[in-house]
Predict the structure.
Amino acid sequence: MNRLERRFGRFAIPNLIRYIIVLYVIGTVIDIVNPSFYYQWLMLDIGRVLDGQIWRLITFIIYPMDSNPIFLFFELYLYYMIGTSLENAWGSFRFNLYYVSGILF
């Protein structure tokens, strides 16, 4: 792990959880404005990815967790608290690796 951090640590995104939360908010706004847009253009659909829509490999992440604003606020606040705590304890590189590996696996 230390070797990876020495080699690739410069690519770590500091405060990654803030960007993730912004993406969740964007996904929620998209879901409120046009609920079918996510399913038509952003959802992870392997058939469409193989047809050339490779952006779906990334955009499936912004699916809104909940459309209720109160629950959304608490979920995003919880994500922020946990994400910043993990990043402060582990460092940016390890938290980035943790989050990206969670998405991949």
Summary: The mean pLDDT is 90.
